[in-house]
Amino acid sequence: MMIEIVVFLFVVFLLQTDVLWRVGVYCTLQHTLVQVAKAPDPQEAASCIVGRDKALVDIRLQLNEINTTLEAKLGKGQKLMRRIGFRALKWPFESKDMDKIIANLKRGQDSFTAALQIDQTAEILDIHSKIDLANLPHVSGAAFDSHAEENNARCLDGTRTELLLQIREWAENSQAESIFWLNGMAGTGKSTISRTVAKSFAKDGLLGASFFFKRGGGDRGKARLVFPTIANELVHNIPYLKLSVRKAIDKYPDLPNKALRDQFEHLILEPLGSIDRTTPIAIVIDALDECDGDKDVETIIAQLSRANDLRSVRVKIFITSRPELPIRLGFKNVQGKYQGLALHQIPEPVMEKDIFTFLGYELGQIRDKYNGQTPEALQLPPDWPGKDVIRTLAQMAVPLFIFAATVCRFLDDKRWSNPGDQLKKVLQYQAKTFESGFDKLDATYIPILDQLTGGRKDAQNSRILTEFRDAVGPIVLLAEPLSVSSLARLLNIPPAALYGKINSLHSVLDIPSDIDAPIRLFHLSFRDFLVDPAKRTNGFWIDETKYHNILAERCIQLMQQHLKKDICGLQAPGKL
């Protein structure tokens, strides 16, 4: 409304002064005022260029001053104007004041127009920059907050508190090493900790990038895409790195295919070294042991350690992995540049307390869910399973969080009996878990697999075990996960038959309802359990050599059946 009042009063002024040259100024000013009226509020337009914001603010301030003056000087004359007529209105500004106001607003218009042109130029440059960065390959699904990681666990509130505090103190300590290496055996909860740490860093604006390796997860296991993906995330989270990364791509167009050292230096190290920042930039790398290529793993560690030499910015890199030989060798070569912690070094009472808390929460959820779907007479007691049972399960699990998670999935599986009966089967292994030399992965997975053969005759068991190995063997050995439909075709069996063989394994396999979606392991420790040579007497043991041969034979048979000359129908010799 203020804009319309000012324009109206300028018309009055022109009529009273009879100075025709002012008409051109008025028209130009009106155009400026319309632009201002249509423009977004500077406080709301966070993406606007600073110059445009300033021009808008200056014009708005001038208009506010004019409006205030008009209201003060004309307020008393409004009643008189209504009684006597339009000519009773007295213009409140001197001619010289009007000239000054018009000149100031004209300057504001010029500044606003110039700022808009700069803004448009910046947008065009940003489009070109985005096109350049689009040529930087990256792995979708590798970030902690990707859809692929969305349903994976984070640390439950009240668990891992001391460890998470230690990691946070390291990240905020400017004198601490640039790398924190958390290592532990399979199933100890490393990835859960990584996701929790990454989420915490992101919440506080510290996270620069994250990369979660996954063996059998396509490009998520390829070393050559790690640094380009991290660079891509850094640019997304820290926009003022964009120019430096773009320059690197312009200078080295084939950089994504260069050696890992060159990638790290030009895409990450040099751009980070070009900025000044007081708060740290955190990078989270999970499951480094699942990266393809032992030598590449050592190289990645060596390159990441170079972040310790940056001075204008503090880069903190959190890494988790199993303590595999290539990784141990890699860290041995960068002594003094990392802080290490093994999960098995955490006191058992602390681990037991965390697992107890986790089990108490999850089992309570399972109880409430089951009771909500069950007649009252068949429901579990409201205090089920009781603190003593939870404590026993926690003691059985230490130090494997995967034991607790798998048991909970097992108890929650409606394909079997009720949670109470399922729990009794797990507790049958209580004594064995405390025997020296007993592998706790056995206690994790055998209760589930024993469901397949329990109560059946030897002949039936033999058939069931063979079917299990023939179906699950390829799933755990494939380099890339396949869907039910694709795997059935590879194995030359009907999809319904394959689904029937694995349908009882939802506690250990992520089996989508869509038969065209890939089947995945919930945890790599299930593969470790099945292919461990020390367990060859176990009926579920999978002979890697045998099933790799079977897969190779089936691949050749499929190619023989379907490969043909001019497979694409181009009818052009020499092309495909």
From TrEMBL:
Q: Which residues form the signal peptide?
A: 1-17
Question: In what residue span(s) does the NACHT domain sit?
Answer: 178-323
Keywords for this entry? Repeat, Signal
Q: Which Gene3D superfamilies does the entry mention? A: P-loop containing nucleotide triphosphate hydrolases (3.40.50.300)
* SUPFAM superfamilies for this protein: P-loop containing nucleoside triphosphate hydrolases
Which Pfam families does this chain map to? NPHP3_N
Protein name (database record): NACHT domain-containing protein
> Where does the sequence pass through the membrane?
none
